Amino acid sequence: MATNTENTTDVTTVERFFDHRTRERWLRRGLYGIAGLLLVFLWIPLAVMVFLSVAQNASTLFPFEGFTLQHYAATFSDPGLMMALFNSAQVATVAACIATVLGVLASFALARREFPLKSAFRTFGILPMIVPGVVLGIALLIYFRTLLSAIPVVGDLFVPGFLTLVLTHSVYGFPFVLLIVSARLYTFDEQLEEAARDLGASPLETFRDVTLPIIAPAVGAGFLFAWIRSFEDFIRAFFTKGTMDVLTTAMFSMIKYGAAPKMNAISAFIVLVIAILLAVAMNLGNVTQYVAGGPDE
Amino acid sequence: MAASTDTNNRSLLRTARGKLALTAGPSTIWLGLLLLAPLTFMVTVSFMNINEAYNIVWQPSLDNYGQLTGPGLPWESSFWNTAFMESLLLSYVIAIVTTVMCFSLAFPLAYLLARKGGRVFKIVIFLVLLPFFTMYLVRAYSWLLMFGPNGVLNATLLKLGMISEPLAVFNFGVPAIIVGLTHAYFPYMLLSLYASLDGIDFSLVEAARDLGASRPAVLKDVILPLALPGIISGSLFVFVPSLGAFITPRFLGQGKVLMIGQLIEERINSLYAIGYGSAGSMFIVLTIVVAFALAFRYVDVDELGGV
Amino acid sequence: MGLTGTAGCLGGLGGGSGSQTINILTWEEYADPDIKSRIEDEVGVTLEITKSTSSSKMFSSWNSGQNEQYDIAIPNNNYVPKMMDADLAAPVNEDVMTNSGDIYEVFKGFQESQFTSGGNTYGVPIRFGWYGYSYDSREISEDHEQSYDMLFNDEYSGNIIMYDNHFKAMSGAALYLGYRDAFEGSSVSLSEDQIEEVKNTMIDQKDMLQGYIAADPTYIKQFNQGNFVIGQSGRNEIVEMWSNGKSWPKMAAPKEGSLAWFESAVVSKASDNKEAAWKVINEYISPQNGASLAKTGYSPSVNPKTQEHLSDEQNEMFGAIDPSQLESMIPFKSVENEDAWLTAWEEIKSA
């Protein structure tokens, strides 16, 4: 119907124009409608959960028995859960530090150096993100438990526990730092560094005064992402944590064991914390670019 | 390259080789020891028998694989007639449906985001990303509250008088798992699609329309080809984790659905059957390798940069 | 920041200051603050209790090298032989176990038949319970003939729950099929044909199920919500519901036999504090601590002397169990050919 543009008279052009406008409008509305429904889909379960976290009857909406903050009080006075939260924060911090150091260095290699097998190196670097958690978790568990633990003297270090979990998460967090920081370095004008060097700055000074300030937000965002990934990971931790509990595994047993009130409260609390962290990370840089798609071509 | 001119300075930092070693070296070693070695070890273990004391018997065999598949060859039905293979097929089906769902939901939103900008964009993207970064576990749990014969969905509909009996679709099971997985991985698809649609010059679309191309034709001939890298990478990043899903089917299947990740986990955790578990994991690994190999025929590795 | 974190954690592993620390890997109820502090005072040690939610996890963590971190684990009885086979357990220090003489004869017998090897005993029963099925007496008459048939009755289609564990669920089905003989002896020995039959029966049953549930609280929650009317369950879940004022749930003792579990303490072979560890275990079956443990978990102690420290009502609900009832129970046992069980279980689940 829209193919006969060539031979139309003025009148039909006008008609078509209106027709086009109406359709355009409806299409746009439809698009907005779908987008709105999607956001509802994304948010509804979380909203219900947040609501239930302050509801007297914590397991379902009906019958509604009034609001309370007692679930929060009970949650934050649960020593086991708080210990797990503390463990999670510790593991995430150490693991994200390792991932950040390694990731920043590797980003320089990607952005600044030419070397054989560079694309293999890059693929290798993002692999921890691609390998499903079950596979990575089991592979590391078997590796630590059956292979490394058998080594005399140092073997004991690899009995599943704090260290093995940190190692696991340092690997898992690495790609996030790599992608974010290398993306930043690709857009970075190398001539700035050369100029600094020409003006007599040492490599170290150049790095400190020129390079670092420019990549700092990306490094910060990379660290945050690696941190969040470690903090929210369940399945890898499930296999390599030993008997130490981190927040996700403690929550998993809570769900299995039916502790809905505390679960709602701690979950709602996490949504809040992540919201703040994410807002910070988004202000540190263009998150969407880091999260999807590669470096700027 | 520029560094090689400072021939008088022999410090590690000054040579190109030294710089490469310093930058790429540590992560190569780290990932070599903590990613490549464990995966290689896993492949090895998958070909070994495990004795009663959970030690590896260093004698290559295909026994573990024999346990997973039935007797016979892949084109015979007996080959597929084991719990493992059925679970694998079910996982494929769930992962594929999830991918399709994610795509059909994400495309309109990604298109809208690519055409809009500024404030609306930032708010919407925040609203999408927030659930995404909220613990995976929490999101799976939030659906646990929604489903079930007396879950929020059924309870609300009952309360509103729209239904008189709890609906079976809102009970736990495969549909619930697909919804949970779609919710979990939808943002991967959205962001990948957005990244590729964002690069599209929409004046091309206008031009095609002006030249009289119909809307479906524009979609098919202009937008989809341009968005292909995003579609492919988005699909990979939804399909792969869905295939290996563990928590979502665990919560939303009420024990009646067994996906491959659960099956492997149970073998490992209740019997420490590392031979079986490793061999089972190989099916996931192999699927990923194949999926990526196919993807690389259409898109460049850089475009799969990632999520 | 990262280094301090590591240091802090490593420091934590070092343990208490001065007094001996006994590390225990076990179920939540054992960490009840009252019981814990009483035992600490009595034995003069510090208890560090790590909660676990399944016997298989206790076993697999010990087997993965954590036996060096723990002095004691208290899994279900069927995991004790596994620990013995994996050479993780130390023989019982009989001199210290002064309360052992008081436990029900039937448990002494189980100890003899299941935990003894080469003249040494390796495990001490602590508390017990059993699995049968429970039902909503508002929906199902209390007069019905109590049998596992009820779990396979299509009258309750869509409202039946089975236990989400290969051993418990398949044992239930095997008893339904009349394979009682397989449960005699030191381990459960279903033949391949029997496993096949169990599998097919359970695949047929699957359509009638509301689902498989593993954890007690989930069972209680869903039972309360009316998601099902009959389900395979432990007795302690139902006792817990009674003590919360619900009288409609009833526990049945199927004529084919109930499956009895008893948690049993094991001391790690790698422990440096074996004697203190056995002293701690001895306290868990003392009349007073055993009674407190029974109260927190709604499950009776293996020591009948605990009844002195419980009220009549508590004794009636869970404290005092008629020993003759125990005789007819089938204790959890390790399973011969567990691979085949698990394979069948997976086939049921993926059917």
From TrEMBL, chain A:
Gene3D superfamilies assigned: MetI-like (1.10.3720.10)
Q: What is the membrane topology here?
A: Multi-pass membrane protein
Which GO BP annotation is one of this protein's?
Answer: transmembrane transport
Q: Name one Pfam family in it.
A: BPD_transp_1
For the ABC transmembrane type-1 domain, which residue ranges apply? 85-282
| The entry's keywords | Cell membrane, Membrane, Transmembrane, Transmembrane helix, Transport
Transmembrane region(s): 31-55, 89-111, 123-145, 157-181, 265-285
Q: InterPro entries, per this entry?
A: Bact_Polyamine_Transport, MetI-like, MetI-like_sf
Specify whether Cell membrane is a keyword of the entry. Answer: yes
Q: Which GO terms describe its cellular component?
A: plasma membrane
UniProt subcellular location: Cell membrane
PANTHER family (UniProt xref): PUTRESCINE TRANSPORT SYSTEM PERMEASE PROTEIN POTI (PTHR43848)
Its family remark reads: Belongs to the binding-protein-dependent transport system permease family. CysTW subfamily.
Query: What's this protein's name?
Result: Spermidine/putrescine ABC transporter permease
UniProtKB/TrEMBL annotation, chain B:
Q: Where is it localised? A: Cell membrane
Where would one find coiled-coil regions in this protein? none
Any one Pfam family match given in the protein's UniProt record, by short name: BPD_transp_1
Q: Which PANTHER family match?
A: INNER MEMBRANE ABC TRANSPORTER PERMEASE PROTEIN YDCU-RELATED, INNER MEMBRANE ABC TRANSPORTER PERMEASE PROTEIN YDCU-RELATED-RELATED
A Gene Ontology annotation in the biological process aspect, one of them, is: transmembrane transport
Lineage top rank: taxon: Archaea
Q: Report the sequence similarity comment from the record.
A: Belongs to the binding-protein-dependent transport system permease family. CysTW subfamily.
Q: Where is the signal peptide, in residue numbers?
A: none
Q: Which UniProt keywords apply?
A: Cell membrane, Membrane, Transmembrane, Transmembrane helix, Transport
Protein name listed in UniProt: Spermidine/putrescine transport system permease protein
Which GO terms of the cellular component aspect does the record hold?
A: plasma membrane
Q: What membrane topology term does the record carry?
A: Multi-pass membrane protein
Q: Which organism is it from?
A: Halorubrum cibi
Q: Report the transmembrane regions from the record.
A: 20-41, 89-113, 120-137, 143-160, 167-186, 226-252, 273-299
From TrEMBL, chain C:
InterPro entries associated with the record: SBP, Sperm_putr-bd
Q: Name one GO cellular component term.
A: periplasmic space
Q: Where in the cell is it found?
A: Periplasm
One of the entry's Gene Ontology molecular-function terms is:
polyamine binding
Gene3D superfamilies noted in UniProt:
Periplasmic binding protein-like II (3.40.190.10)
Any one GO BP annotation for this protein: polyamine transport
Residue ranges of the TM segments: none
Keyword terms: Periplasm, Signal, Transport
Q: What is this protein called?
A: Spermidine/putrescine transport system substrate-binding protein
